[in-house]
């Protein structure tokens, strides 16, 4: 798995800062600890020199002890004299006594000690041990501070890296967001103008692409609107001239009359087809009004009231949608039943769980299994019918139902016929 | 009854075909080929109903509708080749009483004209709703003693609502009674008219107190 860019930037910032601060910490440690040790040695040496001179004058050693861990040995021919912590002279480094004055660091009983030896006038050797615990504690503290600082700075680096990459990638996030909006159909989406010259070019290119896309979409929409206008106008002339002619059908007997009938009925069908076609091409545009609450049973009653009577079984339910679309759905389903199955025999509205089903049943020949998907395609003709349909009725039903957030299908009805089912989300029911 | 219809349409063939077909339906038609001509004729002659195409050269259809509406309550039907929601709403907002989309049958248009010109119901008593006084006989509406100018369609809409005496009137009933629509309850037609009506009779059209919306079904008058 590849790490994300942001993750990588974060890691490298953290790691980079870790390396730099460790080097610095290491150097600091060396310098500080070295210098502190040297200081301690210098002061211990000075002390030992003073003490050695005092020892030559007075024999008491206890008064000269400085710390609780310290010890003083005077190794002379008369035997060793000691004060403070008990130290076996044999355990002292040999060179220290033989080649005094000298300094060394040793460990006695697990405690770090600094040993300073000074020759005395009488051939004896003055040896003093200084406890280094204090210094060791300081070193431990220093080490802890340095390690903590190193880790802290690595973490800070990571945070900084994360923040910097977030900032640096912000235009990309915006780009992603804007591209998403365009993909979602919002062609007005643009990137804000970028001050950074590295990003300005990208933003400008993106925006010009989006603008070109929007312009093209507008041009397409205008073209569709122009076509719509150009088709509607002559059709208006044709259907109305046709209506005038049809009224005078008796004046045109025989062949001319038959031709007239053919012409006018085809013009009417053509007009219906164009209207349906324009409607279906518009159906995917988003100029829908805000969905409103609609009493579905009332819509059904209204549509059916203007047509041949049919049995109704209606529960009173409310759905959310566009009234015009619901009208078209039911009208087209009833038209379809009339054309292909001799008319609907039952229209029902019922609640099933959280959904509503609007069903239109007919007692016609039914729809064979392989045709059940196909009949909802544009210009799919299920055979039969009276040839007056536009071939778009059921396709429009599907478009409208889809826009209403539901689905539509056809199934068998017992004992014969078919049942068209429109299923939508229930808003509320009361009854 | 002789109804004078003026058809404003720049396409000569449509004009002729519609005139012929409307004459067959019993409505003799006068024709105007441009907005200017229509406005000029309407100044000098009287018509009962005007049919206006929205796309006219020069003074366009919307402008004609607006001008006519500012002159009075002459019934106007917009005849449009554009079926987009925004065009429809623009036409209705400009003051049209109804609209039809091409290609339209003269018989449909004739039904619309008849619905628009239908006489008011038989004499009803004056109705009072709060500050509002409706006198169906004279076709007058007063608000707090001051005359409110409603178009004929707005008046009929108000009368239908008032006649129900506070009961709900469904959208379909309104469309059927006021515009003579069979079905195809066109939400926009009713919505725009309700909006126009509220603008004239409500103290605050955004917070109506007289014409109340009943969600999902229709409207009712505050009783």
TrEMBL record, chain A:
One term of GO molecular function: kinase activity
Major enzyme class: transferase
Entry's localization field: Cell membrane
Listed InterPro entries: HAMP_dom (IPR003660), HATPase_C_sf (IPR036890), HATPase_dom (IPR003594), His_kinase_dom (IPR005467), HisK_dim/P_dom (IPR003661), HisK_dim/P_sf (IPR036097), Sig_transdc_His_kin-like_C (IPR004358), TCS_sensor_his_kinase (IPR050428)
CDD domains xref list: HATPase, HisKA
Broad class of the protein's primary localization: membrane
Domain Histidine kinase, chain residue ranges per copy: 226-428
Gene3D superfamilies registered for this protein in UniProt: 1.10.287.130, 6.10.340.10, Histidine kinase-like ATPase, C-terminal domain (3.30.565.10)
Entry-linked PROSITE patterns: HAMP, HIS_KIN
Any Pfam family matching the protein: HAMP
Domain HAMP: 166-218
Keyword Phosphoprotein among UniProt keywords: yes
EC number: 2.7.13.3
Transmembrane segments: 139-160
Keyword terms, alphabetized: Kinase, Membrane, Phosphoprotein, Transferase, Transmembrane, Transmembrane helix, Two-component regulatory system
The reaction(s) this protein catalyses: ATP + protein L-histidine = ADP + protein N-phospho-L-histidine
Highest taxon of the lineage: Bacteria
UniProt xrefs under PANTHER family: SENSOR HISTIDINE KINASE TRCS, SENSOR HISTIDINE KINASE YKOH
Protein name: histidine kinase
Organism: Lentzea pudingi
From TrEMBL, chain B:
Pfam families xrefs: Response_reg (PF00072), Trans_reg_C (PF00486)
Superkingdom, taxonomy of origin: Bacteria
Keywords: DNA-binding, Phosphoprotein, Transcription, Transcription regulation, Two-component regulatory system
Alphabetized InterPro entries for the sequence: CheY-like_superfamily, OmpR/PhoB-type_DNA-bd, Sig_transdc_resp-reg_C-effctor, Sig_transdc_resp-reg_receiver, WalR-like, WH-like_DNA-bd_sf
Keyword flag Ribonucleoprotein: no
Domain OmpR/PhoB-type: 124-223
DNA-binding region location: 124-223
The protein's name: DNA-binding response regulator
Organism of this sequence: Lentzea pudingi
Designated gene of the protein: regX
């Amino acid at each position: 798995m590849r790490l994300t860019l942001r993750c990588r930037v974060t890691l490298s910032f953290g790691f980079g800062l870790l390396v730099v601060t460790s080097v610095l910490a290491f150097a600091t440690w060396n310098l500080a600890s070295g210098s502190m040790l040297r200081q301690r040695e210098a002061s211990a040496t000075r002390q030992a020199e003073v003490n050695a001179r005092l020892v030559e004058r007075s024999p008491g050693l206890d008064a000269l002890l400085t710390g609780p861990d310290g010890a003083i040995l005077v190794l002379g021919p008369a035997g060793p004299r000691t004060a403070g912590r008990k130290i076996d002279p044999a355990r002292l480094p040999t060179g220290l006594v033989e080649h005094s004055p000298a300094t060394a660091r040793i460990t006695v009983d697990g405690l770090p000690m600094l040993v300073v030896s000074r020759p005395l006038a009488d051939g004896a050797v003055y040896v003093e041990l200084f406890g280094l615990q204090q210094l060791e504690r300081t070193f431990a503290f220093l080490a802890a501070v340095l390690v903590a600082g190193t880790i802290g700075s690595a973490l800070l680096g990571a945070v900084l890296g994360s923040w910097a990459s977030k900032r640096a990638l912000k235009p990309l996030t915006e780009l992603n967001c804007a591209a998403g909006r365009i993909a979602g159909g919002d062609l007005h989406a643009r990137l804000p103008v970028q001050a950074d010259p590295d990003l300005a070019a990208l933003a400008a290119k993106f925006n010009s692409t989006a603008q070109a896309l929007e312009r093209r979409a507008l041009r397409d929409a205008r073209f569709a609107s122009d076509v719509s206008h150009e088709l509607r106008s002559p059709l208006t002339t044709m259907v109305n001239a046709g209506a005038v002619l049809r009224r005078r059908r008796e004046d045109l007997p025989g062949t001319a009359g038959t031709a007239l009938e053919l012409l006018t009925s085809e013009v009417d069908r053509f007009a219906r087809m164009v209207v349906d076609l324009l409607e279906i091409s518009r159906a995917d545009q988003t100029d829908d009004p805000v969905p409103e609450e609609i009493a579905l049973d009332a819509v059904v009653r209204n549509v059916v009231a203007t047509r041949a009577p049919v049995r109704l079984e209606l529960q009173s339910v409310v759905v959310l949608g566009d009234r015009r679309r619901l009208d078209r759905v039911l009208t087209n389903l009833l038209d379809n039943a009339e054309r292909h199955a001799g008319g609907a025999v039952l229209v029902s509205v019922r609640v099933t769980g959280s959904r509503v089903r609007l069903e239109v049943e007919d007692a016609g020949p039914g729809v064979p299994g392989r045709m059940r998907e196909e009949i909802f395609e544009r210009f799919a003709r299920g055979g039969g019918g009276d040839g007056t349909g536009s071939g778009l009725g059921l396709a429009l039903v599907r478009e409208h139902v889809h826009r209403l957030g539901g689905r539509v299908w056809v199934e068998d009805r017992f004992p014969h016929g078919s049942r068209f089912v429109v299923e939508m989300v229930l808003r509320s029911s009361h009854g | 009854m002789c109804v004078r219809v003026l058809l404003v349409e720049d396409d000569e063939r449509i004009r002729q075909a519609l005139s012929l077909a409307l004459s067959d339906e019993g409505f003799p038609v006068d024709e105007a080929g441009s907005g200017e001509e229509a406005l000029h004729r309407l100044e000098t002659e009287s018509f009962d109903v005007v049919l206006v195409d929205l796309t006219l050269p020069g003074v366009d259809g919307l402008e004609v509708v607006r001008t006519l509406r500012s002159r009075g309550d002459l019934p106007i039907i917009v005849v449009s080749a554009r079926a987009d929601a925004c065009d429809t709403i623009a036409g209705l907002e400009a003051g049209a009483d109804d609209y039809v989309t091409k290609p339209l049958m003269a018989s449909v248009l004739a039904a619309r004209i008849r619905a628009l010109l239908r006489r008011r119901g038989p004499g009803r008593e004056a109705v009072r709703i709060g500050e509002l006084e409706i006198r169906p006989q004279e076709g007058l509406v007063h608000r707090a003693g001051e005359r409110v100018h409603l178009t004929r369609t707005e008046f009929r809409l108000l009368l239908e609502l008032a006649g129900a005496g506070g009961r709900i009137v469904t959208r379909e009933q309104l469309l059927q009674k006021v515009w003579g629509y069979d079905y195809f309850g066109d939400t926009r037609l009713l919505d725009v008219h309700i909006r126009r009506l509220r603008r004239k009779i409500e103290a605050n059209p955004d917070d109506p107190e007289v014409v109340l919306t009943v969600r999902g079904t229709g409207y009712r008058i505050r009783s």
